[in-house]
Amino acid sequence: xxxxxxxxxxxxxxxxxxxxxxxxxxxxxxxxxxxxxxxxxxxxxxxxxxxxxxxxxxxxxxxxxxxxxxxxxxxxxxxxxxxxxxxxxxxxxxxxxxxxxxxxxxxxxxxxxxxxxxxxxxxxxxxxxxxxxxxxxxxxxxxxxxxxxxxxxxxxxxxxxxxxxxxxxxxxxxxxxxxxxxxxxxxxxxxxxxxxxxxxxxxxxxxxxxxxxxxxxxxxxxxxxxxxxxxxxxxxxxxxxxxxxxxxxxxxxxxxxxxxxxxxxxxxxxxxxxxxxxxxxxxxxxxxxxxxxxxxxxxxxxxxxxxxxxxxxxxxxxxxxxxxxxxxxxxxxxxxxxxxxxxxxxxxxxxxxxxxxxxxxxxxxxxxxxxxxxxxxxxxxxxxxxxxxxxxxxxxxxxxxxxxxxxx
Length: 408
Ligand code: CTP
Description:
This protein has 408 residues and is α/β, with parallel strands linked by helices. It folds into two domains: 6-179, Flavin prenyltransferase-like (Rossmann fold); 189-277 and 300-403, Rossmann fold. Helix content is 34%, strand content 23%. It contains 13 helices and 21 strands. The strands form six sheets. The protein has an eight-stranded mixed sheet, with helices on both faces. Strands 2-1-3-4-5 form a five-stranded parallel sheet, with helices on both faces. Strands 6-7 form a two-stranded antiparallel ribbon. The protein starts with 5 loop residues before the first strand and ends with a helix.
């Protein structure tokens, strides 16, 4: 996700400096070009050679080192960077950065950077909580830095409290959110439903389906990376939700209906990837149903059709996207659902096609709007999510253009 991006990784003299090697490695796995700059104190904690081996780049420590390809290094580097992060950031470097002190390679380079800048403080709790440090953090935020809050836990000095270097994967999430994708959905509120529903029969049993939630979670991740404010209404799944999204857990179709309809009027886009039960037991037994001789019949009643309701109560300019998972006549059925539920886009797939459907990491879908139908090749669910969001962005743009033409 960071192919073609240059990331400056500033490492300062905290005991957590060795963990920056993991971060450098994670960035390399995302195909970033990683340029590490260390402070003089950081080299006491970890050898620059570690970073050079990991990144394939010369690790910089000295502003006056001439053995280097860039001209006036700190300026050239600052210009080349798509993102700069100081991780770990000591109280000392936070203080310098907050006040424009530029007395080494790292601080001079950061002063010249106009790209997004992040800092991940790591230090003793007392140092972190000191009002001076807190004021410096406030100041850095005021200057546009994103400051990642340190984790709670047992620190190297034996104290327990806030100040631990966060998990490197969390830091990577912050970096990806900042630069992985263009922010074409910034300012948009997007609600996505994902996963199955569970309809209780009794306290130990329920009716459900095979949905894994992967498609909805991929949509939530990609919309978040494109800058949208994402709410993910999710049935029970085994997945970890993407970072920076609001997660609303639900179990039944009724809970999904309430969670979605109570938030729908605030949304610009609603994507219903959840596999919602159409029927639930008419009565839920308060006690476990014990077996008897002979057959057992369950009476089922219809659940609320959330998407149908949303189509009937769509606010002007809002986009609705549904899914149609079929086993036959996919396009006709999907087109009928688009019409019936008043949707702007429906994503149809045939679960019988290899690589499509539940549980897989791929999908084979057809995107159907009121005016066109595009049959996509087999692709990863993340790529499908991007294609769906591209389509919705196009519809939004077309709606805006026609509203503008109408206004004239
Ligand atoms: N859906 C919903 N509420 C329901 C059932 C479905 O919001 N009670 C939504 C799904 O999330 C999906 C779309 O409607 O986006 C289509 O779901 P699907 O099960 O394919 O269609 P149904 O309307 O249930 O029709 P059928 O059972 O005839 O296939």
